[in-house]
């Protein structure tokens, strides 16, 4: 082996070792600056930890940028969530005698420096137990006299800590609504094994609601649930099971089974790239075989292998690679099928005492049972992950039956109600949130709590 090749092998080995170490021992999030801040001109800025030592800020206008650590208490931001340069903002935190943040200076390029003061929103760390497991949570309360209306958040499918990473509690509390968030089982500071079993997650959410309802500063008759993405399956199920929920706020959540939500990933990709119904039927044919394996546990691996082999040269097959779907994952995976089979066996069966995820669960009957619970469903018209149009059709049908359902569609928004642009190499760059999205949520919760709204939201 030549010296150059040896050096390359050594460099690759070091990089692989570093990646493994980073995965096993991730850098702890810097959460000390998490909170709501008010600029001198009255604008609200929400700060939240994002990755390792970096932060992110959100504003009611939808503006959102990554804050890259410069050293000490100083940060800077460029455009969107990914690019540090060109730098357009520098932010430096100030701390009090106790070391806690009290505000920051906000220096945007070409504008006068302004200052921000941290809102002294009361924060109550809490724990609750269910199934012999201890869950970690945080309640953020508004300023002013109690009792407060409250919203309990059901977060999405991610395995990150919601307590450390969610800005929503500070948004809602700054607008008069107490907000509770907790790390779902197997994530963050909560015990247990991570799962996507909706019944299990709904029962955990019920337990969190029980803790919030017991608090003297909370009005037990004005408790809402807010579900985000996967939480759109979980929150209505918890409301139907536990009852006594004032309203539901569902953000880019589904009204279809997981099977259809998964299928949408490659349907969207094929539509966007101009493929027709015949190509979609070919993709559906393979996806049905996958579904028999995943949902019915049938041994159709040989059939799947033949179907994949015959489709690999088709243009549509290349188009679905990387789409937000199981089929897109299989199409893109460089692993041979036998390794995918081992992964599926581990994911679906190994040490599972309950289904990891019921992909055939239909959320329509659950929502139909909530005939007296108002709900607002917020969607993005260009969501690559959730089938907004299919969900809206289901909701419109339920509304025609007299259910108190409202919807809001942001036509140009992607999943998360994010504004996204494609770079020249077809990467997606997040620019921020859609204007009006934050206040749509706030006004719904205030209205359902009997409080005055602060701006029109154009609900239909």
Description:
35% of the residues lie in helices and 25% in strands. It is of the alpha+beta class. The strands form 3 sheets. An 8-stranded antiparallel β-barrel has the order 1-2-3-4-5-6-7-8. It is globular, with a radius of gyration of 23 Å.
Compact overview of the structure:
With 460 residues, the chain is α+β, with helices and mostly antiparallel strands.
The tally of helices reads 14
Helix content: 25-40%
Task: List the strand order in the largest sheet.
Answer: 1-2-3-4-5-6-7-8
Shape: globular
Kindly name the structural category: alpha+beta
CATH class of the largest domain: Alpha Beta
Full CATH superfamily name of the largest domain: Alpha/Beta hydrolase fold, catalytic domain
CATH topology of the largest domain: Rossmann fold
Task: Please outline the helices and strands.
Elements: H1 3-24, E1 35-39, E2 44-51, E3 54-59, E4 64-71, E5 74-77, E6 89-95, E7 101-108, E8 114-118, E9 123-130, E10 133-140, E11 148-154, H2 162-165, H3 168-174, E12 178-182, H4 198-213, E13 218-228, H5 231-242, E14 248-251, H6 258-272, H7 277-294, H8 301-311, H9 315-319, H10 326-332, H11 337-348, H12 364-368, E15 375-380, H13 388-400, E16 405-410, E17 418-422, E18 428-433, H14 437-448
Parallel strand pairs: 11-12, 11-13, 13-14, 14-15, 15-16
Antiparallel strand pairs: 1-2, 1-8, 2-3, 3-4, 4-5, 5-6, 6-7, 7-8, 9-10, 10-12, 17-18
Helix pairs in contact: 4-5, 6-7, 7-8
């Amino acid at each position: 082996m030549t010296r150059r090749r040896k050096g390359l092998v050594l460099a690759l080995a070091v990089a692989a070792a570093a990646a493994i170490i980073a995965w096993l021992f991730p850098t702890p999030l810097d959460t000390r600056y998490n909170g709501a801040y008010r600029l001198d001109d009255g604008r609200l800025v929400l700060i939240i930890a994002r990755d390792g030592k970096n932060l992110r800020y959100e504003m009611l206008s939808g503006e959102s940028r990554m804050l890259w650590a410069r050293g000490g208490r100083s940060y800077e931001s460029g455009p969107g969530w990914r690019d540090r340069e060109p730098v357009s903002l520098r932010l430096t935190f100030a701390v009090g005698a106790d070391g806690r943040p009290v505000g920051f200076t906000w220096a945007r390029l070409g504008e006068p420096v302004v200052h921000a003061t941290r809102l002294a929103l009361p924060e109550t760390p809490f724990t609750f137990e269910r199934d012999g497991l201890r869950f970690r949570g945080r309640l953020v309360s508004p300023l002013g006299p109690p009792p407060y209306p409250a919203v309990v958040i059901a977060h999405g499918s991610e395995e990150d800590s919601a307590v450390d990473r969610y800005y929503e509690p500070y948004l809602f509390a700054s607008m008069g609504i107490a907000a509770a968030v907790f790390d779902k089982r197997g994530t963050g500071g909560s015990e247990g094994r991570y799962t996507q079993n909706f019944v299990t997650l709904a029962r955990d959410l019920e337990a969190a609601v029980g803790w919030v309802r017991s608090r003297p500063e909370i009005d037990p008759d004005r408790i809402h649930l807010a579900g985000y993405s996967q939480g759109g399956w979980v929150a209505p199920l918890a409301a139907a099971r536990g009852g006594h929920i004032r309203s539901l706020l569902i953000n880019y959540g589904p009204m279809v089974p997981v099977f259809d939500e998964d299928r949408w990933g490659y349907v969207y990709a094929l539509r966007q790239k101009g493929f027709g119904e015949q190509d979609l039927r070919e993709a559906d044919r393979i996806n049905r075989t996958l579904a028999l394996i995943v949902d019915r546990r049938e041994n159709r691996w040989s059939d799947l292998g033949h179907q994949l082999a015959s489709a690999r040269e088709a243009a549509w097959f290349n188009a679905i690679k990387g789409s937000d779907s199981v089929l897109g994952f299989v199409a893109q995976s460089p692993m041979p099928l036998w390794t995918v089979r081992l992964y599926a066996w581990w994911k679906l069966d190994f040490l599972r005492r309950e289904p990891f995820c019921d992909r055939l669960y239909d959320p329509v009957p659950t929502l139909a049972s909530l005939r007296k619970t108002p709900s607002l469903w917020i969607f993005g018209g260009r969501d690559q992950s959730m089938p907004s149009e299919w969900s809206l059709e289901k909701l419109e049908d339920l509304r025609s039956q007299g259910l108190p359902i409202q919807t809001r569609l942001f036509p140009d928004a992607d999943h998360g109600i994010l504004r996204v642009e494609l770079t020249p190499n077809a990467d997606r760059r997040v620019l921020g949130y859609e204007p009006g999205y934050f206040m749509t949520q706030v006004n719904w919760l205030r209205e359902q709590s009997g409080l005055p709204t602060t701006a029109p939201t154009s609900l239909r």
